[in-house]
Amino acid sequence: xxxxxxESFFVIGEGLLGEVAGGREPTVVLPPDVAAITxxxxxxxxxxxxxxxxxxxxxRKKIGSLMAASTGGQGQxxxxxxxxxxxxxxxLTFDKTSVTLGDKLSPAQLVQARSPSLDLDxxxxxxxxxxxxTKFYEADGLHLRTGKSKAAGGFxxxxxxxxxxxxxxxxxxxxxxxxxxxxxxxxxxxxxTHCAMIRFHNRVVDTQLGGVxxxxxxxxxxxxxxxxxxxxxxxxxxxxxxxxGVVNDVFTNGRKAFEVGVPATQVPTMPIxxxxxxxxxxxxxxxxxxxxxxxxxxxxxxxxxLEYLFEFSALGGDLGGQTRLLSTWLADFRRLxxxxxxxxxxxxxxxxxxxxAMRIDTSIVDPLKHLPPSIVGGPxxxxxxxxxxxxxxxxxxxxxxxxxxxxxxxxxxxxxxxVTLTKLTSAQIRDxxxxxxxxxxxxxxxxxxxxxxxxxxxxxxxxxLNAGRLKGVGARIVAETFHRxxxxxxxxxxxxxxxxxxxxxxxxxxxxxxxxxxAFEGKxxxxxxxx
Length: 531
Ligand code: HEM
Fold this sequence. Notes:
Elements: E1 9-11, E2 15-17, H1 32-37, E3 42-44, H2 57-67, E4 74-78, H3 80-93, H4 97-100, H5 107-113, H6 121-124, E5 147-148, E6 159-162, H7 171-175, H8 188-208, H9 214-241, H10 244-253, E7 270-271, H11 272-277, E8 289-290, E9 304-305, H12 306-311, E10 356-358, H13 373-376, H14 391-401, H15 407-416, H16 426-431, H17 443-451, H18 455-464, H19 472-487, H20 512-519, H21 524-527
This protein binds protoporphyrin IX containing FE (HEM).
The site of protoporphyrin IX containing FE (HEM) has 22 residues, from helix 3, helix 13 and helix 14.
């Protein structure tokens, strides 16, 4: 079974770190001959090791538990960005060998397949020509397959609004999404985001390929989609979560710390500092409850609790016992993204229907303390309060597992590379600004945390003190890793400076709302099908 999260990390120059925890299986099981010649997903270590600086288990449990108190409230970022963030994380960390084993791959291809890039392989797999990936495509080899929701609550079954599902004979098989990366069916919000990306691709196929020779159609569509997606990430997503000065600096002047000066064609790696800490920032953006759609909101008396978003997916739950998504659960994208930004007042909802992400800070919402066992790879009988179900504890523990550098170490490391940043003071780390409260830690526990701050905690404190936007260490690591992952993609706006978006309002604007407007033809009936 596919899992969310690496159990072990193959770090270049260090080998395999960590172990397979109880009940979890590796993400991809390779035939022995292939396994023998290819490393698992390629991580690297950007900074120094945090030897002798890790928090002990008691402290991690306590801090993890305190962090899950959701103290910080909501921020300004529309909640949809949480899940395009999660989608992007899966794109970055997708191990393509799971979809390319049908072909005889060269060692170089294997290395590429297990490397981070922002090339939408989690959407495309290895392309329609690859035997393992044809199942993601329509018979024309151009359109991505979609699924049909199931009529419910007076709402009709709708084609194109669910993930494609349905292979096999058992209900569990039938509900399994037929998409390259099953993690995109881990909760309903990321699943509906994946559906939107499928729709985006299909719309490009339908409208942008006039005059393109048949043999070039798919690759041309993929190129258009990927570069627009990268443009959106660079110009819309990143500046929302990171100090925009840092994003602009990295994309204008290049990287200072990560794989500096390597040829663009060299296959990138994934810094463990990004994967184990900094990009887990998204966990603090997750809400406990969503004004999900007309059927599931406060007004209906039954808002879209996060637990339901797990339940109505096939990895985090069992699709509510169904084999297809019930129409009552279809997303209302107007509640997740602000179409006022694109000057579409007809697609705006009243403030009390709109969802903002939780502020990026040191707190996460309570339901993330009790993740479904299926998400963390535990048995169904896992106790409700088992710390292994707490995402904060898990994140802190992963850092331990790979002896991750602390926030302070990374701040010094980056400064040494010429990055300008201000280190957090001990008082800032201790007190923050409306995030986790550390009063109930013992003096020793608090001292350990303040002196050797786990990187995840540190970058969240930085954001908390910067009105909910990454700064300093966190912003630099996230922006540089994205830059490299775009540079290392087959299609890349970093390598092709002449690219400008053609599917937005002008040739320098392509935001997430523009992506959705294009994909859903600007129609309310598609963006909010229950209205
Ligand atoms: C409801 C939403 C989410 C859930 C339930 C969730 C759950 C998880 C879990 C269980 C892990 C593995 C933890 C471990 O054992 O190490 C993980 C890893 C991770 N998550 Fe999330 N996550 C969510 C949203 C996000 C978002 C929004 C982002 C970023 C914007 C994100 C970024 C990451 C990263 C970078 C990792 C490590 C790499 C990977 O395995 O993908 N997650 N998440």
